[in-house]
Design a protein that fits this description.
Largest sheet: 2 strands, antiparallel
Distance between the termini: 6 Å
Keywords: Hydrolase, Membrane, Protease, Transmembrane, Transmembrane helix
EC number: 3.4.21.105
Shape: globular
Helix content: 55-70%
CATH superfamily: Rhomboid-like
CATH architecture: Up-down Bundle
Organism: Streptantibioticus silvisoli
CATH class: Mainly Alpha
Pfam families: Rhomboid (PF01694)
Number of domains: 1
Membrane topology: Multi-pass membrane protein
CATH topology: Rhomboid-like fold
Order of helices and strands: HHEHHEHHHHH
Number of strands: 2
């Protein structure tokens, strides 16, 4: 992905997250006007087969204005950072996190607790942003992950057992899904490229001939980017993860 493509994807990511937040807030207005009936009908309740499908609706619902306000900022920030290198990959990641977060609540939440909220997505995006640079070998993404991990490490305190008043199971399930997504949706094209070279062929000195062999009379094949300073620069920046 070159700089222009990255800017285009970042623009898409911005509008995707803006649109998602707009939908969540419109639903909140409808939910609030109906005395939070949507949260009661479409939230996740553990061990109830009839509420299993609600893992896909619960992230859009909240229990109060304070609930949605506290989620909106982190959701936009982490969502944008997770999406700016590719909206299609981001949508796959979102689906994975929704499933892992929702299933963690459905399988392990006891009692008749009705769980809603986008915090599972927030933890999933957070986990993905932290590990993506390591799996993709992008320097910039690795630095972003380090900064986010250092700045928001306190979030992990509400993803451990026993945290009162929050769905720590949903948080933990989302975090696991985000880290897994970093591996599943890693950039395989960076690792698929082979170094220039290979076995010899007719006219190249035979099998095992080195491209760096300065033997008299042997014409060395041109390397990609020879004589093209701009292409070499782009290659170096790409190897560093800056493109």
């Amino acid at each position: 992905m070159d700089a222009e493509e990255m800017i285009a994807e970042a623009r898409k990511a911005f509008f995707v997250m803006f649109g998602f937040l707009a939908v969540v807030w419109v639903i909140q207005i409808v939910n609030w006007a109906d005395h939070y009936a949507l949260s009661q009908e479409y939230g996740v309740i553990g061990h109830r087969p009839g509420r299993l499908a609600d893992i896909f609706t619960s992230p859009f619902l909240h229990w109060s204005w304070a609930h949605i306000e506290s989620n909106s900022g982190p959701l936009f920030i982490f969502g944008f950072l997770a999406a700016y290198r590719g909206v299609t990959r981001f949508l796959g990641l979102s689906a994975l996190v929704v499933v892992t977060s929702g299933l963690a609540v459905w399988f392990f939440q006891g009692g008749d607790v009705d769980t809603v909220g986008a915090s599972g997505l927030i933890f999933g995006y957070f986990g993905y942003v932290v590990v993506r640079g390591l799996f993709d070998r992008h320097l910039i993404d690795t630095l972003i992950g380090v900064v986010m991990a250092a700045s928001f490490a306190y979030l992990l305190t509400v993803a451990i057992p026993g945290t009162p008043g929050v769905s720590w199971l949903g948080h933990l399930g989302g975090l696991v899904g985000g880290v897994a997504g970093g591996w599943i949706f890693r950039d395989r094209t960076r690792n698929a490229a082979r170094p220039y070279g290979g076995s010899g062929s007719a006219g190249s000195g035979g099998p095992g001939a080195s491209f760096d062999d300065p033997s008299p009379g042997r014409h060395l094949p041109a390397r990609p980017g020879d004589g093209d300073t701009r292409a070499d620069l782009h290659k170096e920046l790409g190897d560093l993860g800056l493109l």
